[in-house]
Amino acid sequence: MDPTRARVLRLSAGPDVVGEYEEKRSRFVAVLRRVDDEDAARDLAADLRKAHPAARHHCSAFLVDVPGANRIERSNDDGEPSGTAGIPMLDVLRGSGLTGVSAVVVRWFGGTKLGTGGLVRAYGAAVSAAIDAAWDAGRVVEVTRTPAWTTEVDHAVAGGLEAALRAAGAQVLGVEYGRRARMTVAGERTALEPILAARTSGGAEWELTGEATTENAAVRADVES
């Protein structure tokens, strides 16, 4: 990976991830969900209110990236003293490096007040426990976005071009055969151009058509180093 490019970490697709913290018989169950927009992020709190209507609080925080705009960051204390639940949860999410993630902590009161400091610690610890569970289960992935390019070449050179591109580490996303072969490839143009030029004697060019996204399992030691 290019060391100048910021890592983008997400939960992999799949079921919600759960972590739990307990203090003075109060239970704090944190649930993490992969989300792509603000509506989906808010749905988690609504789902857990329905699932656990007897719980005292359903506090929430989420981070959602918006292409071409600022990241959306929101939190809600859901009746806990201001700043003791949502903000600590949000701080843990920020520190985790994850994005596109919603966290809700469901609290069952144990009969003993924890004080503001105890609440801050408990809500943050519950989310941290869920993040640890995500790492332990291999549910954290690193997202890589790469430019996607298209070119049209003669059928006679398409096979050799595809093989050369794959050998160079480029992603061949598709080949359509019509009057000519139309090939779509993900990679950096500086690496792709010489291969295309050599295979077509300079008779074809790459046209930018979008972006390809890949997700691979992240290694926690690499992320935190």
Topology:
Layout (H helix, E strand, L loop, with lengths): L8 E3 L5 E7 L2 E9 L3 H14 L5 E8 L7 E5 L9 H11 L4 E8 L6 H22 L3 E14 L1 H13 L3 E7 L3 E6 L2 H12 L6 E11 L2 H5 L1
Antiparallel strand pairs: 1-7, 2-3, 3-6, 4-5, 4-6, 7-9, 7-10, 8-9
> Sheet bearing the most strands, described?
5 strands, antiparallel
Mean pLDDT: 94
The secondary-structure element order is EEEHEEHEHEHEEHEH
Work out the strand percent.
Answer: 25-35%
The tally of beta strands, per DSSP, is: 10
Briefly note the structural class of the backbone.
alpha+beta
Q: State the helicity in percent bands.
A: 25-40%
Radius of gyration: 23 Å
Q: Distance between termini? A: 14 Å
Number of helical segments?
Answer: 6
Low-confidence stretches: 1-5
General shape = elongated
Describe, in plain words, how this protein is organized in 3D.
- The structure is a single chain.
- The protein is of the alpha+beta class and 225 residues long.
- It has six helices and ten strands; from the N terminus they run βββαββαβαβαββαβα.
- Strands 1, 7, 8, 9 and 10 form a five-stranded antiparallel β-sheet that branches.
- The radius of gyration is 23 Å and the shape is elongated.
Short description:
By secondary structure, this protein is an alpha+beta fold. It has helices spanning 38-51, 86-96, 115-136, 155-167, 189-200, 220-224, and strands at residues 9-11, 17-23, 26-34, 57-64, 72-76, 101-108, 140-153, 171-177, 181-186, 207-217. Helices cover 34% and strands 35% of the residues.
